[in-house]
Amino acid sequence: MKGIYPSILSADFGKLAEEIKLVENAGVQGIHCDIMDGHFVPNITYGSMIVSKVNEITTLPLDVHLMIENPDKYIGDFVKAGADYISVHFENNMHLHRTVSIIKSEGIKAGVAINPSTPVDFLCDILPELDFVLVMSVNPGFGGQNFIERSLKKIRQLKDVIIHEKYKTIIEVDGGIDESNIRTVFEAGADMFVAGAAIFKSENKARTVKNMLKNIEMK
Length: 219
Ligand code: DX5
Ligand code: ZN
Known about the structure:
Elements: E1 3-6, H1 16-26, E2 31-36, H2 48-57, E3 62-67, H3 75-81, E4 85-89, H4 96-105, E5 109-114, E6 132-136, H5 151-165, E7 170-174, H6 182-188, E8 192-195, H7 197-200, H8 205-215
Parallel strand pairs: 1-8, 2-3, 3-4, 4-5, 5-6, 6-7, 7-8
Helix pairs in contact: 1-8, 2-3
This protein binds D-xylitol-5-phosphate and zinc ion.
Zinc ion (ZN) binds next to strand 2.
């Protein structure tokens, strides 16, 4: 699960296959798909139909980040579309344990995402159930925002708990990650790094991916 996961939110959807192949050939570990419904976040992106197309384009794992209301209702659709990992948000979920159980019963990896204003402590009772935690380092809704520095403290805090409790939980960080800060995020304890604008808006996407991989000591 460790590695770089480009978010296609910032890719050119007119040539999505080309964009995905490019990052795949550059050595990324998976593709991050941002699903937004215009309710949980103030933006709408795409649904399972596009995820299923992405799954036809690549053999890489698909990391599906659900920023939607009623995620339970749609988990099955995203699994059918090819999701390998699904994360749901803590903030809009009264029955997180049930949702996580639904994801795991599909035989894929389950994660919970927390917004910048949500304390890591709130996860203590669900943490042993999770394959990964997604620490949002921007407010969800848009690509290309600046990394919120406070997130580093949250990553360190989460890592300490995981080590102390001997959990196997992976830490994913999403938002504002680029070549200049990825090393710091890695050193704070993150394992999975989502990057949208930094990769897809860069002049040389392959070179950016390779530099990022080097910074997290992969390749
Ligand atoms: C934001 C999304 C992110 C976003 C990251 O709501 O969850 O995955 O695409 O994009 P950058 O790397 O541009 O901040
Ligand atoms: Zn995301």
